[in-house]
Amino acid sequence: MDIGALTDETLRDLRRPRDYPAVSLLLPTTRRSPYSPEDAVRLRNTVAEAKRRLAEDPRVTRAARTDVENRLDAAAAEVDLTHSTDGLLILAAPGEHQVWYLPRSVPQRVVVSDTFLTRNLVAARIVEEPYWALVLSESETRLWDGAGENLTEVAGGGFPVRPELPDHQDALPGRNFDKVGNHPLSSREESHVERERQYMRAVVAAVTPVLDTRPRPLYVVGLRETIALFEKLYPNPGAITARVESGGANGKSAHELLGVLHPAFEERRTSRRGDVLRRLSDARGQKLFTSGLDEIWQTVREGRVALLAVEDHYQVTARVDGNGGHPQRVEAPTEPLLADPSIHEDVVDEIVENARNSGAEIEFVPDDTLAQEDRLAAVLRY
Question: Which one is predicted more confidently, 320 or 264?
Answer without folding.
Answer: 264
